[in-house]
Every structure is written in C-alpha cells, then in structure tokens.
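Hey team,

Filing this mostly as a record. A colleague (T.K.) asked me to run one chain through the structure pipeline before their review meeting, and I want the input and output archived in the tracker in case anyone asks later how it was produced. No errors, nothing strange. Just documentation.

Input sequence:
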Amino acid sequence: IFTYALHETGAQATESIKIGDDLEVDMAGARQVGIDQLFVNHDRKAHSEPVTLEVLALDEIMTIL
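Output structure:
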C-alpha cells in the first residue's frame, strides 16, 4: 500500500512521513519503503522498534510539522 500511495501521488519516500499508532502495520510498512515514521504511542507502550519520531498524543504532532 505504501508503494502504491507513493506512485499514485507522485511523492518520493524521502519527502513523505507516515503518522500512525500501529508499530507493525504503520511503522514497519513505511520503514520498508523508506518513508519516515511518526509513531503516536497513545498507550505509552515500551517497545524496541526503530521509529523516526515518537509522540504520546496527537496534539504533539503540530510541534514537529
């Protein structure tokens, strides 16, 4: 789906970011195609997954973008 989205929008992976709250689906999928990831960790789950950025709440995203 990530490759398809890049193709359909004409975007480059290096200029894109995936915002999501699922480490396996959102973060790993984006990472596999070279898209930066912003993990919204609502539940403050401890994890060892590599993510580009991490926030605890949606309102924190605006300070990053």
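Quick notes for T.K.: Strands lie at 17-20, 36-40, 53-55. Helices lie at 2-9, 23-32, 61-64.
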